[in-house]
Request: fold
Amino acid sequence: MGRVIIYNIIRFIALIAMQVVLFKNIGYYNLATPFPYILFIFLLPISTPNFILYVIAFLTGLTVDAFYDSLGVHAAACVALVWFRTFFCNITLDVDAQNSFETPSLGIMGNKWFFSYISIGTLIHHLVLLHVEYFSFTNYLSTLFSILLSSIFTILLIMLMSLLFYKRKSRLLGN
Amino acid sequence: MKNLWLFLVRYNAFFWFVLFFTVAIILVVQNNRYQRSSFINSSNVVVGSFYDKLNSWKSYLALDETNKNLAQENALLRQQLQGYILKDTLDSIQLVDSIEANRYHFIMGEVVNNSIHQKSNFVTINKGSQDGIQKGLGVITSNGVVGIVLNVSPHFSTIQSLLHPDTRISVTLDTSNVFGSLVWGNNVDPRFAMVKDIPNHVKVQKGQKVYTSGFSLFPKGIEIGSVEETGIQSGESFLDVRIKLRTNFSNINHVYVVKDLLEDEKNKLEEQTADNNG
Reply:
């Protein structure tokens, strides 16, 4: 358990650093901007209590906001992401899996589960993020387009990172 | 009580979500200038487009009046045109200043909101910064002046109408070429206004026409109205004149925003002169 916490702290620092140093400067015009730091929230241990999850996500969002000068925007999006996460885990995992302190990584959860987890979560995060950021319904099509492109960009990056650190372990799910 | 507690525990994820999300949104709206302004402004977009819609219906009711005005304006223009065509070129050679001809640019706008009963009256039109309207431009109708552009948004602009205590427009009397400034004054009647600061020695007659002077914002020679009452003493050496406005403020539909293309040049030159003198 101690080891998992240390892993998470390292992951937090590495992902935030990458986000603000590297990915902040990468983008396809203003249409697609990747936010792969949310992988940290995705990979928090499954049985983390809800309240702790929300606090961690809120603080993560605030940290990124501090670097992006957009107080509250990322915090709101991360909180929405956590809500999706608890919902998704509730309906896809059985009670045993929900109570294990495992990291829901690609190696443990399997391709299908992990991919749908990441892609829907990213979509929701970006949906909330860009809506709060633009804060208006003028030019709504371009907002939606931007959400879609950014999500694809982020999902690609997250899958790439997951494959990079892929370690096949005993599966929690049957497949 | 126990059931309520169970309910809260069962759906705790959702309640935490609502709580944290609200905190985040409050942070966003309080701390980011853009969101704060658009939080207040989004209502204005709603209000603006509502007026726009309302006006698109109301404009049908005034169609008769509008048609009449347009026909009148057409007739006037035709008459003026006739004057140019019939000018005897042998008699005198007229030099046409090609810069002067293109000096003013007119942008047509439709009135979506208008007030005449306030102490400070404003007009909103359906053209904004996207159509090239800027703060401080003059606004006229086919028969008189309306006011000065006060604020612009991408699709709408508000005009500080002549019926506003801060509006001053430079005008001239037709025969004497003396200048005064047109203000609404202490009026409560949207049909009348005051011309202030006319020198005492000038004889002003009832019914005399008042035109724009061309010193600021508006092109020269737009008829504003006619003198209704003279001889109101305002100071030692100045007269005030009460005039009847030609613009019917209770019924303006189409306005023209006047863009002076040489405004910058003129201002720069005047600034320079001021600098040299000071």
